[in-house]
């Protein structure tokens, strides 16, 4: 598929005229053809190469390649660089090409979907990609919506239709969309063909829940909202057919606008690696400089005289120029200290670790059939270094399965007793037990009835009645579902709704209310209301919402009831329940008329519409009468307290950031063992002003000081609870450090009543001031900002859609899997990556520095020690797989041990396994090895002869001896470093050694030499050299000298300063028992 | 590996329970325990010690004699003569006397040694054409550009063998004389079999003869500028030892790794008395046809006589290195043992 995108300046306003392609084409809107693929066959090579050469490493190697093509300085054949470079580039290119192939396939499939388009008065089948802005299309049940369309009319009454938005935001409940009333009558193609309305609306954007526009038709203006839009990616449900006007097409649709790549995260190891690579470049230049100076001196003293045997190259006329060339030659030779394969190997290892996470059965939740998923493959080792976890509460620590638990009606509290359902429509799974409440329903207590009537009317739940009595509710939030279900079980059954009516069955009688208005819920209002007219004609407003906002809006007449209910609310909150207050208000016909007029006015406003609506809502939600309160329980997930306890033992600090009220949050804190009764003090900060917050923080600080003074350590444990409004002040630049020092001295921190933005701010604060790795875990859309700003974002795939999962780097179904992700996978990944890097730098220094020492003997002429093929293959064949196997499979302790001894996690947090110090140790070891590998063969061979008298001091024998010794020494070293010998390690280590000898014999064979004598001039060398006992004695001696000190140091370290992991390893561990593991990999909580 | 199975049911997406995917592959996890490391160290020390002693004893049985003739004795004159390039064509012969205190038993090898001659310079080593020396006719007529400036002479005639390596070939020759009571006897030397089998038979070949004589094959080429004879006349006595397979040429073409090196010149022919058991003790002289100039690069020239053992010529470094290493390993082992015994926390202090 080839799509053409006109290049136009960003539009400020979109104008679309129905059924008028010529008019719409003037604006050059994007067509409905989408291209998510990056390349086509022609552009693939240039574009992909261009992208790859934007990587600094690749460009560096390209630069080297160009240097090697200059004959005067080419100390190595061009293929020593081009082979690895081509390998790396082609691996990446193949990966990119496969990815792109699948994108092409899916693009093709999507673009070729059929859709019915109204063209010249008749419906025609068209491919999606040919649909234009301004077309009217027909959608049928269960079809995907082809573009962002304005709903014109549907087959259902009132212009209603239902959609499922799973592909868009992951929510699986159905949502209602309604066409504006004037177009709802345009039901057949003939009428629609003559529809010539013009839509003016906002330019394309990525806000899924917002749309603002106006329809101009027959000289009239009609406001359009998101309620009138069907977005691309939705599926039409429960609706026979509907017609829509295409507003945004292809790349302009909200779905496509949302599919941008998220910010690329880098790990601290990545950053360290980049610094080290820069240092190595510096080192390389220094080495090159030293050798160039050496060359200058040598050429002046000796080379000048040696010219009769070897004249200088034509451009060289003095020793300084020769030194200059020699510098570049040495840069080429010594470039292998930063091997190109480093970056590829790191990526391969990380990818492998990600697969291990995906494959882990113990992170599979069989109840929800979800396996853990590493959505980002580049962060794994950072999982082993986490110090701060920021967790959402609802849905993350808790199950987000709400049960109606308690209620307070007219000052009377009910809850937690036995209950038998009294009506046949009851939900059999419902369990709320209170005989008294049942009694009061039966008796017909008016307050109780009104209470449940409110619950059955004031909500946005959709119902689906497949057969009589088999009601299924689809609720956007589980809270609402729980409340409506509760009302249903007490005899107030919500049956169905239309845009204008709600039908319920009240104590067996079917009642239909006409729905006058829905004053919907949002995070600022924290309440929702409905205005209904009952069959008798009385108009009533029902409101439910957070107690704090509702109490302000009550009639002040019944203070006693208000205070009793408040007591109940506090009681419920203290039990960790989620509370809502319920109230109602009777409206007279006049009041309703007046308000309805102002509402219509606000509704039609094109600017600040939402603010105006909110103000209107506010006007009517006053003077209400309190009905009571509900309390909903959100159960803790399985294993949460244990996980939190384990993670705190691993020295990870857990902060809970929740939107719940303080009491609820504190209570959850207690129930998941974050807060305990042993704690010296739970500090609560809830000031509303800058001064009071500052004062509170100061006093806490002094309190700490008093505690510290006796012995300079904080004795006792503290916890900090801070509320959202205090947090807003505490996060001010002048107070944040004070807040931070206080918070970090506490064992547990709970922030309640926080907004999504504040969650992100808290994470940013820690990132800014502590050099610590942060992890944010959450499940809802409100956690997305926090997940994105933390070093690692974890999404819990639970009840609340998949937005958090989509933004996350890792996702799984249960909070408790976090312990396995961090303590097992993270720890292993970190350990493996560190060991991998240490060894990698070691082996390359050992390999490369030999050239440096040889420089002093070969007149600094940039002669290599090894055969050029050995240089080419050393990093990509002879030594790559054993270290990859170690990086992939190594385990210092088995997974159960790292869960049993959470302290094993600490080295990662303290960054002990790979840091600048470790790096220097590695390269020192590498340089030491290179000294041994050069000088031992030098000392032995320079005077040695074969047993038949032929000297062994020729260059080729020396090269073979050194190369063999090098491969053997680094193989022994990897054998020492490998702590976990699986079959792969054996195969790779022995296989690499075998491949070295095989390839060497092949390269030194007669066949190759006869064909390319100038390339394979080492012919016969392998057998002549390696048959000499003195060569093997040399190799053995060099190996012993290289390895013995390492072994001695390791033994001493293990003996005198054993790490915890060493000690744990020494414990006799029972071998893996399948039955125990089956138990461990147990399923989620049985309900 | 990661293909989604088309199972249904609640466990449809459950990952496979394979040892590989669950990272439970059977594995061996070795530990550096005292019981493994300390015996290993002692054993290693013992092995090194035994090897060192054995090598030392072997080396004691070999003998070596070096005679530096750069400016020694009458060679002084030749040395001065070679300083002047215009005398390059003139012959110069000199003689050095030396005596052998203890007879050289067994095979005796004669080497020429050069000091401070860099055969390992990058451009020097590249300055050769292995294709030409493999006998490829095309390379014979147009040598590789790597040979520059020794690829063609001023007239554009290709040089065979081309390049700086061949051009700088060592061209002194020696005659060894043994002074018995009966008068001087020339020590018979074998000048063949000085190279690896692969060099003589694979790496270096003369161009295809096709019923031509060697000089005819090399027609249209010229000798390297520093040579006195063309390549097909290197050995006047043995026609089969000429051209690109001349032993002396092959020996020279195998470049030395370090600036001080020795190369095989020949070995003692032991068929006749008094040399059947080697070189007897006594007085010797070596007569040198002094051609190779070394004063340009401050080099030295020497003649080396050695006998060999199973691991080659006299080489004191290897046994001593083994003995020293053995000592150090033993010392380390003792220190480690003491440390382990006194301070070790070998699992004993699990409590902390």
UniProtKB/TrEMBL annotation, chain A:
It comes from the Eukaryota. The active site is at 392 (4-aspartylphosphate intermediate). ATP binds at residues 392-394, 480, 521, 544, 578, 658-660, 753, 759, 782-783. CDD domains: P-type_ATPase_APLT_Dnf-like (cd02073). One of its GO terms (cellular component) is cytoplasm. One of its GO terms (molecular function) is ATPase-coupled intramembrane lipid transporter activity. InterPro entries: ATPase_P-typ_cyto_dom_N, ATPase_P-typ_P_site, ATPase_P-typ_TM_dom_sf, ATPase_P-typ_transduc_dom_A_sf, HAD-like_sf, HAD_sf, P-type_ATPase_IV, P-type_ATPase_N. It is found in: Endomembrane system; Membrane. Gene3D superfamilies: Calcium-transporting ATPase, cytoplasmic domain N, Calcium-transporting ATPase, cytoplasmic transduction domain A, HAD superfamily/HAD-like. Residues 805-1058 form the P-type ATPase C-terminal domain. Keywords: ATP-binding, Lipid transport, Magnesium, Membrane, Metal-binding, Nucleotide-binding, Translocase, Transmembrane, Transmembrane helix, Transport. The keyword Ligase does not apply. Residues 16-82 form the P-type ATPase N-terminal domain. Pfam families: Cation_ATPase (PF13246), PhoLip_ATPase_C (PF16212), PhoLip_ATPase_N (PF16209). Belongs to the cation transport ATPase (P-type) (TC 3.A.3) family. Type IV subfamily. PANTHER family: PHOSPHOLIPID-TRANSPORTING ATPASE ID, PROBABLE PHOSPHOLIPID-TRANSPORTING ATPASE. NCBIfam families: ATPase-Plipid, ATPase_P-type. This is Phospholipid-transporting ATPase. It comes from Oryzias latipes (Japanese rice fish). The gene is atp8b2.
From TrEMBL, chain B:
It comes from the Eukaryota. GO terms for cellular component: endoplasmic reticulum; Golgi apparatus; plasma membrane. One of its GO terms (biological process) is phospholipid translocation. InterPro entries: CDC50/LEM3_fam (IPR005045). Keywords: Membrane, Transmembrane, Transmembrane helix. The keyword RNA-binding does not apply. The chain crosses the membrane at residues 36-57, 320-341. One of its GO terms (molecular function) is aminophospholipid flippase activity. Its main location: membrane. The keyword Transmembrane applies. It is found in: Membrane. Belongs to the CDC50/LEM3 family. This is Cell cycle control protein. It comes from Oryzias latipes (Japanese rice fish).
């Amino acid at each position: 598929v080839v799509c053409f995108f006109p290049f136009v300046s960003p539009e400020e306003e979109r104008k679309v005229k129905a059924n008028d392609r010529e008019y719409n084409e003037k604006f050059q809107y994007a067509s409905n053809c989408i291209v998510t693929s990056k390349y086509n066959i022609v552009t693939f090579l240039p574009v992909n190469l261009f992208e790859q050469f934007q990587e600094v490493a690749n460009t560096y190697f390209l630069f080297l390649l160009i240097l090697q093509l200059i004959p005067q300085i080419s100390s190595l054949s061009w293929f020593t660089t081009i082979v690895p470079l081509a390998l790396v580039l082609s691996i990446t290119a193949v990966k990119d090409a496969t990815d792109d192939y699948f994108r092409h396939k899916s693009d093709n499939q999507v673009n070729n979907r059929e859709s019915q388009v109204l063209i010249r008065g008749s419906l025609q089948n068209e491919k999606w990609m040919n649909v234009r802005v301004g077309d009217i299309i027909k959608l049928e049940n269960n079809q995907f919506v082809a573009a962002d369309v304005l709903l014109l009319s549907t087959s259902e009454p009132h212009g209603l239709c239902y959609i499922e938005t799973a592909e868009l935001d992951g929510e699986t409940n159905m949502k209602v969309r309604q066409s504006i009333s004037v177009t709802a009558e345009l039901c057949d193609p003939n009428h629609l063909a003559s529809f010539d309305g013009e839509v003016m609306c906002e330019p394309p954007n990525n806000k899924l829940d917002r749309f603002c526009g106006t329809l101009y038709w027959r000289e009239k203006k009609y406001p359009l909202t998101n309620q009138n839009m069907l977005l691309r990616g939705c599926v039409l449900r429960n609706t026979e057919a509907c017609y829509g006007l295409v507003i945004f097409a292809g790349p302009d649709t909200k779905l496509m606008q949302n599919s941008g790549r998220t910010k690329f995260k880098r790990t601290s190891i990545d950053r360290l690696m980049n610094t080290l690579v820069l240092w190595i470049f510096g080192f390389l230049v220094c080495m090159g400089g030293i050798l160039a100076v050496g060359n200058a001196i040598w050429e002046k003293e000796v080379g000048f005289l040696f010219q009769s045997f070897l004249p200088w190259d034509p451009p060289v006329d003095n020793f300084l120029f020769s030194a200059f060339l020699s510098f570049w030659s040495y840069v080429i030779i010594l470039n292998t200290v930063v091997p190109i394969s480093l970056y590829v190997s790191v990526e391969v290892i990380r990818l492998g670790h990600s697969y291990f996470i995906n494959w882990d059965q113990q992170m599979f939740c069989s109840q929800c059939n979800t396996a853990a998923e590493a959505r980002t493959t580049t962060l794994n080792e950072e999982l082993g270094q986490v110090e701060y976890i920021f967790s959402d509460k609802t849905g993350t620590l808790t199950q987000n399965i709400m049960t109606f638990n308690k209620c307070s009606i007219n000052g009377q509290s009910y809850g937690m007793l036995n209950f038998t359902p009294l009506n046949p429509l009851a939900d059999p799974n419902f369990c709320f037990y209170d005989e008294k409440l049942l009694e009061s329903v039966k008796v017909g207590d008016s307050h109780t009835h009104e209470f449940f009537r409110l619950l059955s009317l004031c909500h946005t739940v959709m119902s689906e009645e497949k057969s009589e009595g088999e009601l299924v509710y689809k609720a956007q939030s589980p809270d609402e579902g729980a409340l409506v279900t509760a009302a249903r079980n007490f005899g107030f059954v919500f049956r169905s709704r239309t845009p204008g009516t709600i039908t319920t069955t009240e104590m067996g009688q079917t009642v239909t209310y006409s729905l006058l208005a829905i004053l919907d819920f949002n995070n600022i209002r924290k309440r929702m209301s409905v205005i209904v007219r009952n069959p008798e004609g009385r108009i009533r407003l029902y409101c439910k919402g957070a107690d704090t906002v509702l109490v302000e809006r009550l009639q002040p007449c019944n203070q006693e009831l208000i205070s009793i209910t408040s007591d109940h609310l506090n009681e419920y909150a203290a039990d960790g329940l989620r509370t809502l207050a319920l109230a109602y208000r009777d409206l007279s016909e006049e009041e309703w008329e007046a308000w309805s007029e102002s509402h219509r006015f606000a509704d039609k406003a094109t600017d600040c519409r939402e603010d105006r609506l909110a103000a209107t809502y506010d006007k009517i939600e006053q003077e209400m009468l309190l009905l009571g309160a509900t309390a909903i329980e959100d159960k803790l997930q399985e294993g949460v307290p244990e996980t939190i306890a384990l993670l705190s033992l691993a020295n990870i600090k857990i902060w809970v950031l929740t939107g719940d009220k303080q009491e609820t949050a504190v209570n959850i804190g207690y129930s998941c063992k974050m807060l305990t009764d042993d704690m010296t003090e739970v500090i609560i900060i809830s000031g509303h002003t800058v001064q009071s917050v500052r004062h509170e923080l100061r006093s806490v600080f002094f309190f700490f000081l008093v505690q510290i003074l006796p012995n300079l350590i904080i004795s006792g444990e503290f916890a900090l609870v801070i509320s959202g409004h205090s947090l807003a002040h505490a996060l001010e630049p002048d107070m944040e450090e004070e807040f931070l020092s206080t918070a970090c001295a506490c064992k547990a921190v709970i922030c309640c009543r926080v907004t999504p933005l504040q969650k992100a701010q808290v994470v940013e604060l820690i990132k800014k001031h502590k050099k610590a790795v942060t992890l944010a875990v959450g499940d809802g859309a409100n956690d997305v900002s926090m997940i994105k700003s933390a070093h690692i974002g974890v999404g819990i795939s639970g009840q609340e859609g998949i937005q958090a999962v989509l933004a996350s780097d890792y996702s799984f179904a249960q909070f408790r899997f976090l312990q396995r992700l961090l303590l097992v996978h993270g720890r292993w990944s970190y350990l493996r990556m560190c060991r991998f890097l240490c060894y990698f730098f070691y082996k390359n220094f050992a390999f490369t520095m030999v050239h440096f020492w040889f420089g002093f003997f070969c007149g600094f002429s940039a002669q290599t020690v090894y055969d050029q093929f050995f240089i080419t293959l050393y990093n990509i064949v002879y030594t790559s797989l054993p270290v990859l196997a170690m990086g992939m499979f190594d385990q210092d302790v088995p997974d159960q041990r790292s869960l049993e001894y959470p302290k094993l996690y600490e080295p990662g947090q303290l960054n002990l396994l790979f840091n600048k110090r470790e790096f220097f140790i590695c390269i020192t070891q590498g340089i030491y090895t290179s000294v041994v590998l050069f000088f031992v063969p030098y000392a032995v061979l320079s005077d040695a002869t074969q047993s038949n008298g032929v000297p062994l001091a020729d260059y080729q024998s020396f090269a073979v001896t050194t190369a063999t010794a090098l491969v053997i020494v680094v193989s022994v070293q990897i054998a020492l470093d490998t702590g976990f010998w699986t079959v792969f390690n054996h195969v790779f280590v022995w296989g690499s050694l075998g491949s070295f000898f095989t390839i060497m014999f092949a390269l030194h064979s007669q066949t190759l030499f006869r064909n390319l004598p100038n390339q394979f001039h080492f012919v016969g060398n392998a057998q002549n050299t390696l048959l000499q006992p003195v060569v093997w004695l040399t190799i053995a001696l060099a190996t012993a000298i290289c390895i013995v000190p390492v072994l001695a140091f390791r033994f001493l370290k293990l003996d005198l300063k054993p790490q915890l992991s060493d000690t744990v390893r020494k414990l006799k561990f029972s071998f893996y028992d399948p039955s125990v593991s089956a138990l461990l990999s147990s399923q989620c909580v049985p309900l | 590996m990661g293909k989604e199975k088309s199972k249904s049911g609640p466990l449809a997406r459950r990952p496979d329970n394979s040892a590989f995917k669950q990272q439970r592959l059977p594995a061996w996890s070795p530990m550096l325990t005292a019981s493994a490391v300390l015996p290993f160290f002692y054993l290693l020390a013992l092995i090194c010690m035994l090897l060192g002693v054995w090598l030392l004893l072997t080396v004691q049985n070999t003998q070596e004699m070096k005679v530096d003739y750069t400016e020694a004795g009458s060679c002084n004159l030749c040395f001065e003569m070679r300083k002047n390039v215009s005398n390059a064509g003139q012959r110069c012969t000199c003689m050095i006397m030396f005596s052998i205190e203890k007879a050289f038993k067994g095979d005796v090898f004669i080497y020429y040694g050069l000091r401070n001659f860099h055969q390992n310079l990058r451009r020097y080593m590249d300055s050769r054409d292995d294709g030409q020396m493999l006998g490829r006719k095309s390379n014979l007529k147009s040598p590789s550009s790597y040979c520059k400036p020794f690829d063609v002479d001023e007239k554009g005639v290709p040089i065979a063998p081309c390049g700086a390596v061949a051009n700088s070939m060592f061209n002194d020759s020696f005659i060894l004389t043994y002074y018995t009571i009966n008068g001087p006897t020339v020590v018979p030397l074998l000048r063949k079999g000085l190279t690896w089998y692969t060099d003589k038979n694979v790496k270096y070949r003369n161009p295809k003869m096709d019923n031509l004589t060697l000089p005819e094959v090399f027609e249209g080429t010229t000798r390297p500028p520093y040579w006195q004879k063309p390549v097909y006349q290197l050995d006047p006595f043995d026609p089969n030892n000429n051209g690109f397979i001349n032993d002396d040429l092959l020996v020279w073409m195998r470049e030395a790794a370090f600036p001080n090196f020795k190369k095989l010149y020949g070995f003692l022919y032991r068929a006749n008395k008094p040399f059947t058991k080697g070189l007897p003790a006594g007085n010797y002289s070596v007569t040198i046809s002094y051609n190779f100039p070394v004063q340009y690069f401050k080099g030295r020239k020497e003649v080396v006589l050695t006998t060999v053992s199973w691991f080659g010529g006299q080489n004191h470094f290897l046994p001593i290195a083994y003995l020293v290493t053995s000592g150090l390993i033993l010392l380390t082992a003792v220190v480690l043992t003491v440390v382990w015994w006194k301070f070790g926390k070998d699992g004993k202090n699990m409590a902390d």
